[in-house]
TrEMBL record, chains A, B, C, D, E, F:
Family matches, as Pfam families: 4HBT
Listed GO CC annotations: cytosol
Keywords, in A-Z order: Hydrolase
Example GO biological process: fatty acid catabolic process
GO MF annotations, alphabetized: long-chain fatty acyl-CoA hydrolase activity
Full protein name: HotDog ACOT-type domain-containing protein
Organism: Aminipila butyrica
Domain (HotDog ACOT-type) ranges: 1-110
InterPro entries xref list: Cytosol_ACT, HOTDOG_ACOT, HotDog_dom_sf, Thioestr_dom
Family stated for the protein in its record: Belongs to the acyl coenzyme A hydrolase family.
Domain of life the protein comes from: Bacteria
């Protein structure tokens, strides 16, 4: 599936008291990046509601002045849900700093009644993409 | 374990384009509320780092003008980690609107080297608290 | 009367150029905490309008990384007004850092016409609570 | 004394759930405007600490799209304190919407030890300015 | 034409990773200050739409704790447009730190159809004001 | 040259009083997107200072709920400067909503002394890219 990218410069307003990226800000941006990927894949931003974050894990802190991007890809399509995997990458080093999985549901835009989206995943283009899909599946099958 | 409470009035700056609480804002607040519970239980806010959100699921939307609280409780104590369960409750109706689980690790404040915190959970005071602990455990044992 | 609590972690975005909690942010949070106490005591957040802050005094500065709570209690009930006392407490030391008094008026939610709220204060549970009530009274009697 | 002016356009991010200017935002701006007046009158922004808000009363609500200014004037000079009166005026109608009084103390910039500022008020240029001074005085003499 | 003034205290939330005023914040404030000048000169904030920034150049950085004002003046009146010059001045030193030119168009408030505003510039009160007008003119005649 | 992309969901906190994207927010994001393109092209975010915005013109308003991206490309390389062209595109319609040109200078990171960056533009890959370069050139040659 297509990967979307959302880039941020880390400024003092984004920091915690350790002077690196505040997790609350990082997760807010991740949810927005995941929404964008789901909405652009789905084609309709008004018929999509947030349902759940399954993971947002930090591997390594992000420093002020760094430029980071969230790379977001739909990795699971249920009948009325879409799950997105988002990776937080530091642009200058290429390092993975954080990783998340978020699920949205597709609804009628006024009543918010669940509605099938009809989307199917295409073929995974890499073992990595397949691994993300397998991981997403496990959040649902437990 | 002691439950901490963090309260917010929902204002226009907190909304999404459906005119209810934006999930990105809701999850940012949840991370902060969970941090507060972990830090006050641990006794040291400088020796605590965010590691992972295992869940942040919305059950029902939150409207502008509503007053909501995050009720946060430590529900798992690993050797160098603390997991917090946070419930987002609408104060006037008492309804549960969202629920989350977040893990922090305990570190030396300057080097960020992992360090055992020595905390143990007390006895659960209710079946509900035990259920939260069991659920948190399953995020670690898969 | 019941005391409500609203907790914040102090982050860089909350600071002034002395690198401690900016008074403008501290007073914004105090007004929100006082509103929450008035609305939950009154039972209706849409029929309450801000009228006046009588005091918001800082005793000692608040540092980044500190966790602080506003403890807010209704301390005066006029015919169409409610006055709240809010204390800003540093959670780890227990110190009082700031103290404020705010008055709201009760109105019909669409016309904003003043309307009697019918609330009466219960008996003060401590000399401290009585002292807050006496202080609030003096803002009105001069 | 010289009056300073600080102007804002009211945008959706500044509103409460009644869709007019949120009091928390209005009072944050008032504290900043009062600080500016005190610092520019005193000549040193690093030697000035917030001490207390004596009043911030709203007379009439402010609507989105309105342009408002805070007009701030030093109205009392204690030995180590300066009190500022700030008026919130709607620019297009000229109406007074809110009014506040804030006191700052003058300190040594590193130790925060109180230090006399040596400022004296000039002669009031109007009965109005004298009335503000008299009012400020009453916050101190009770 | 009348000059309007909008003042800000530089706080940590306004900084870039070099710890001085972030250009993105500085230019956002400039656009707001220019809008205020255009709207108050025009007399109607609902019939004015942003069209273009022709310049926003920084000469020298702004430090935390500094107090700065935007001084904004209408310097060009097309048939359906108003161009504003805004200067960012550090209040304590009087230095010019940045300078900008912004054009707004006048419209019917509901349809956003262009409408002649009927305003004409008065006589320039100084060579400086004339120089701003000449400069603005060159953005249009290119 | 490589084009960088930065994506945003339009939320109520980003709106003006006409309920569409506030120009001040749009231009703040444009400056950040342009900085990201310049820094990633240059390879060093600490040696780059904002100098000037030559244009940020809105063609058509942006509505809440829309997803927009800034597409940013270095289009001019002076000896110690880089100029970026940024286009604001609505993702679902593909429409160009706004366009900007911003110049940064390259400096030694501690002294902020101008330093040659040694970058040269590659061959333009399209007539469109060449047109952006020609336009940028005209901001310098008048």
């Amino acid at each position: 599936m297509k990967t979307y990218r959302s880039t941020h410069l880390i400024k003092p307003e984004d920091l915690n008291h350790h002077q690196n990226l505040y997790a609350g800000r990082g997760i807010e941006w991740m949810v927005e990046a995941a929404f964008v990927a789901a909405a652009l894949t789905h084609g309709d931003s008004s018929g999509l509601l947030y349902r759940n974050t399954h993971q947002f894990s930090f591997n390594k802190s992000v420093e002020p002045g760094e430029i980071v991007s969230y790379y977001s890809t739909v990795v699971r399509a249920g009948r009325t849900s879409l799950t997105v995997r988002a990776a937080l990458i530091a642009e200058q080093s290429g390092e993975l700093r954080a990783e998340g999985y978020v699920t949205f549901v597709t609804v009628k835009s006024h009543t918010h009644e669940l509605v099938a989206h009809g989307l199917e995943l295409d073929e995974a283009v890499s073992q990595e993409e397949q691994a993300w899909r397998d991981k997403a599946e496990r959040f649902f099958t437990g």
